[in-house]
Amino acid sequence: MPTRVLFVCLGNICRSPLAEGVFRQKVHEHGLDDQFEIDSAGTGAWHAGEAPDARMRETARRHGVSIDEQRARQLVSADLSRYDHIFVMDRSNLRNAQALDRSGRHAGKIRLFRDFDPNPGDRNVPDPYYGGADGFETVYQIVDRTSEALLRELSE
Ligand code: 4NP
Fold first, then answer.
1. How far apart are CA 34 and CA 90, in angstroms?
2. For residues 48 and 41, what is the distance between their CA atoms, to the nearest angstrom?
């Protein structure tokens, strides 16, 4: 049985698509494709059906990761049952994901992504959507090192 991992942000067009793409690439490089099922979603529906933000795609491409084929979707309560691990990008996402879990049954598997960051800062992945270009590179650096640590943790 594969380990099912879901990355969650607000719009599912910047941070969580990058986390999905980077984590998938690391899984592939370690020859572990069969052992993981990976997806991403947004707590909001505004961008459902859209490709990731062009600035995030460009940043990913520069680092050798393609996220071009992804399409945004909204997080639904069935995801909370289906996935083994739900990694949210910030505390606002955490509150919104927890609110979908009416029974509280899945509370233990909804966690902040940066809980695994060796240099976790305030543990939020900053939302780059309304900022400048350097925000996207900052998100890449956070996502890259955190995904590395996360894969080590999950494949132990
Ligand atoms: P994301 O970034 O949550 O990393 O995908 C955002 C994308 C869109 C919006 C906010 C954040 N928005 O307000 O439309």
1. 29
2. 9
Measured over the CA atoms of residue 127, residue 40, residue 140 and residue 132, the dihedral's sign is negative
What does the longest C-alpha to C-alpha distance in the chain come to?
A: 42
Locate the ligand 1 atom nearest the alpha carbon of residue 125 and give its number.
4
Predicted TM-score (pTM) of this structure: 0.98
CB atoms within 10 A of CB 106: 18
Half-sphere exposure of 51 (CA within 13 A, CB side): 9
The question of whether 127 is a catalytic residue gets the answer yes
Per residue in 84-130, pLDDT (tens digit) is 999 999 999 999 999 999 999 999 999 999 999 999 999 999 999 99
Name which residue sits closest to atom 13 of ligand 1, judged by CA. Answer: 11
| Whether pLDDT at 140 is above 90 | yes
Is 9 a known active-site residue? yes
Q: Is 121 left (phi over 0), alpha (psi -120 to 50) or beta?
A: left
